[in-house]
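New here. Your pick:
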Amino acid sequence: MHEHVARSMYYFSVHLLYASLVGCAAWLLTSLRGASATTKYWIWVISAVNFIVPAGAALDKLLASHLSWAHPLGVIGGPVWDMTEGRRAVLLAAIWFAGAFVMSIRLIWRVRTEVRDQVPAGLSYRTASSLAAGVPVSFGSRHSGPAVRGILSPCIVFPSGIKRVLDEREFDAVLIHELAHAKRRDNLIRLLYEISLCALWFHPLVWLAGARMALYRELSCDECVVRRAQGRALLSALAKLAAPEAALFLQATASSHVGDRLAGLVGSSTTNRRATNLILISLFAAIVGAGIFQTIAHTACCFILRH
């Protein structure tokens, strides 16, 4: 039994090592200027997925007979064997379980709060603009700011007084931004990430991935607005919503990286970024592939631990 646990822990440790290197590469690549926020957002989504999905496991099973060159990583194998023995294993399991339990309660609390704050059953939706494109839009006094609610069937909610603060063009710009969230199912992606965070709560790069995803999620939706030639209107809308006299909406804008968004809109450009995006995607794909290959190289076919 101990050997089976040690084998699993060894594989998981090697997987996390190379997933961490991919995460560091994602941080470096997305720090470069020139690529779109949408490209950077998906790089971080894939980085987060790479932490929780051990892609090398399937390849181990499929290609094991052809991987006789693989060799174990002794610097990890020995410590793993020691950690999975006796009281150490029990202590580590207890610490991990306690953290996972707290994170799970935190997630359940957040989801329940959002469900409770959603539009009450029976309240009719009304289309705010022809831009809504079939996505339900609702106005109500219970909403603290523009947001997308729901996971599988998202809807857009606005505070009932928002049209007293924004003119029609500014409102349409905010609506386009929220529509980008709804159509991309960002709430579902966020939920899946937070579920994985419950298991990998101890890893700082997983937390970093969540923070970077949150930032580029907003910036990429702003890019959708800029492409619709509504960038100036969104800039004006954000400035109004963050103003002291619009305190009702401060919560929403503060939680949406408003400073970074304002800076991004001020410096936004319609320059074609396809070449830069392609280079960034190619580099990241190569790094992810190398990480998977190296994981297989140190786990497939052979496994040596220090006894």
Remarks:
- Confidence is low (pLDDT under 50) at residues 120-127, 250-255, 303-307.
- Residues 2-297 form one domain.
